[in-house]
């Protein structure tokens, strides 16, 4: 497995596969924060310690993953070009912090890209498992398997009362962050999302944009995740999130049904106008592309559009990001050049459907 493979394929298997409630839930993620007992936390460690942590993990972990996971590919941040790091961020395989802050940072990736283990990010180790659609329990099961396997290789920082010790106090305990990526266009169109988000926050969950903290909800895509990691078991955290997500799925479907009854022709017109924009534009910016892709995906899910794959939102939301556009171009592009290339790529992708 080479770096070129991770760079060239826009859609990881976890984003292209079908799964439960895939019309609304795009993906499920579980992340576990862990630290090595014999080293200082990343907030205080020296660059020499960071290098030793990476070397320790290389020596003990690179023999292979648990079960059918296979051999993991090690990508060192200092060996990657800025554009390559940006592509990995756009694919949700590494965090912006890992790409930006850590000269001794690295990432272990499984071949199918369902498992990503970040090294020397905010914590020494961050295990991330990504599954298609609404499969939080499956993502937790895989994360636990990887975690158990890692714990056989290294000595975790753990306290009998507090649980796993982490750089940030909000992660102490289970160290678990679970999240789902949801497409909620009907709740946005009916403006119900404005009252739903504060209600979700009151339940101890947080709503973010497509790339997590500080990012915008482009294309009506939201990430819903837990905030508390202490005082609850991993299973309880995941079950609480599943319960809220199930309610959101029901509310989104009800909003879609209401739109179909009260504004069907207006909604159909909006969907096909967006499809026409994508199919014919010569220049298109990121936000407009995301909005139009969201409309088209809604049109596919509601049966207005028959001849376009429902995975197109997943695929083109990644392919049309600045990093991927420049990766395919073979080098840096000015903003206007990216907008032109984005429009060309979308037109070509839609022609493939025909």
Automatic annotation (TrEMBL):
Give the EC number(s) listed in the UniProt record. 2.7.14.1
Q: Which CDD domains match?
A: bacterial_phosphagen_kinase
Q: Does the keyword Isomerase apply?
A: no
Which segment of this protein is annotated as the motif RDXXRA motif of the pArg binding pocket involved in allosteric regulation?
338-343
Any idea which UniProt keywords this protein has?
Answer: Allosteric enzyme, ATP-binding, Kinase, Nucleotide-binding, Transferase
Q: Which InterPro entries match?
A: Arg_Kinase, ATP-guanido_PTrfase, ATP-guanido_PTrfase_AS, ATP-guanido_PTrfase_cat, Gln_synth/guanido_kin_cat_dom
Q: What class of enzyme is it?
A: transferase
Q: Which GO terms describe its molecular function?
A: ATP binding; creatine kinase activity; protein arginine kinase activity
Return one Gene Ontology term, BP aspect: phosphocreatine biosynthetic process
A cellular component term (GO) from this record? extracellular space
Q: Catalytic activity, per the record?
A: L-arginyl-[protein] + ATP = N(omega)-phospho-L-arginyl-[protein] + ADP + H(+)
- Spell out the activity regulation: Appears to be allosterically activated by the binding of pArg-containing polypeptides to the pArg-binding pocket localized in the C-terminal domain of McsB.
Q: Where is the Phosphagen kinase C-terminal domain?
A: 24-255
Q: Per UniProt, where does ATP bind?
A: 27-31, 92, 126, 177-181, 208-213
PANTHER family, A to Z:
ARGININE KINASE 1-RELATED, ARGININE OR CREATINE KINASE
What this protein is reported to do is described as: Catalyzes the specific phosphorylation of arginine residues in a large number of proteins. Is part of the bacterial stress response system. Protein arginine phosphorylation has a physiologically important role and is involved in the regulation of many critical cellular processes, such as protein homeostasis, motility, competence, and stringent and stress responses, by regulating gene expression and protein activity.
For this chain, the family text in UniProt reads: Belongs to the ATP:guanido phosphotransferase family.
Name by which UniProt lists this protein: Protein-arginine kinase
Q: Which gene encodes it?
A: mcsB
């Amino acid at each position: 497995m080479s770096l070129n493979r991770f760079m060239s394929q826009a859609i990881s298997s976890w984003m292209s596969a079908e799964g439960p409630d895939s019309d609304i839930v795009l993906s499920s993620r579980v992340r576990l924060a862990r630290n090595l007992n014999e080293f200082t936390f990343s907030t205080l460690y020296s660059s020499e310690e960071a290098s030793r942590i990476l070397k320790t993990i290389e020596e003990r972990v690179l023999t292979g993953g648990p079960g059918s996971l296979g051999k993991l590919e090690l990508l060192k941040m200092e060996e990657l070009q800025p554009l390559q790091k940006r592509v990995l961020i756009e694919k949700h395989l590494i965090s912006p912090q890992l790409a930006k802050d850590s000269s001794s940072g690295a990432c272990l990736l499984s071949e199918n890209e369902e498992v990503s283990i970040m090294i020397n990010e905010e914590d020494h180790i961050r295990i991330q498992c990504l599954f298609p659609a609404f499969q939080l329990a499956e993502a937790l099961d895989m994360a636990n398997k990887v975690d158990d396997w890692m714990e056989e290789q290294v000595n975790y920082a753990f306290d009998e009362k507090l649980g796993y010790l982490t750089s940030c106090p909000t992660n102490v305990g289970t160290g678990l962050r679970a999240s789902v990526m949801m497409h909620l266009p009907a709740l946005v169109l009916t403006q119900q999302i404005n009252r739903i988000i504060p209600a979700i926050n009151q339940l101890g969950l947080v709503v973010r944009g497509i790339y997590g903290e500080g990012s915008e909800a482009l294309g009506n895509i939201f990430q819903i995740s837990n905030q508390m990691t202490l005082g609850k078991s991993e299973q309880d955290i995941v079950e609480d999130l599943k319960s809220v997500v199930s309610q959101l799925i029901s509310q989104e479907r009800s909003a879609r049904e209401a739109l179909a009854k009260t504004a069907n022709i207006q909604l159909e017109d909006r969907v096909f106008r967006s499809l026409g924009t994508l199919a014919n534009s010569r220049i298109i910016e990121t936000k407009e592309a995301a909005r139009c892709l969201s409309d088209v995906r809604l049109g596919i899910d509601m049966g207005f559009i028959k001849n376009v794959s429902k995975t197109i939102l997943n695929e083109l939301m990644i392919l049309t990001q600045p990093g991927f556009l420049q990766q395919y171009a073979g080098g840096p592009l000015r903003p206007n050049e990216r907008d032109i290339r984005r429009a060309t790529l979308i037109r070509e992708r839609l022609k493939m459907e025909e």
